[in-house]
Amino acid sequence: MTTHQRGVIMSDYVAFVRGSLPNGRPWSTERKITSTQSPSALLTTWQNAWTTAWNLATTGLATVYDANTKITQFEVGTLDGNLRKVAKTTANVNLVGTDANDPISGNNDIVILWTSAVTQKYGRGFMKLPPPCEDMVNGLVIAATPGANIKAAIGSVRTAIQADGSTFFVAPRFLTESGQPAFAKTVLTAFAVREQLGDMRVREQKVTKTYF
Predict the structure, then answer these.
(1) How many domains does the chain have?
(2) Assigned domain for 212 exists
(3) Which of 44, 147, 197, 207 is paired with 4 by a 20 to 30 Å CA distance?
(4) How far apart are CA 194 and CA 210, in angstroms?
């Protein structure tokens, strides 16, 4: 969707990171973005932001993954007024992990909670990253140092995207019970990395979640 704000053309996009797990299964994560950039320019910004966050020597995302956990593609899709993807541009890459330890089960994931000034459900969103290596966790809880590194890496992505005034957002596809109209955008302003890995068994146990 394209809008005009004080003479500036703003467009809505969905930006993806895609890759593969050690077991060969694909993984992906995404965030919706409002930006003045063209699709190709935003793809470059998105790709550069994640590549930098991945490759930081001692604190990058690559340090929590083994060599068979990879990022293989970035995509930026253009959204219409109903938040349907109507066009896309992609870039294929090969970013691999650097940890020599074994990865934990592909049924787990790193959970990132994005929030806004709105406390209701429509004011927040989640991202999921691949499960880290065994030395990065205690049981199914991310250790303090890798947790801080993951948070710093995602923070660098957020800073890079927001540098020109672009914003992350969420929007419901239907009218919510609280009255938020369908497709009405809420800007996301903060995020936190969950200490507990995402896992169906943990969710069923209703363990209290804590965040870095």
Answers:
(1) 1
(2) no
(3) 44
(4) 6
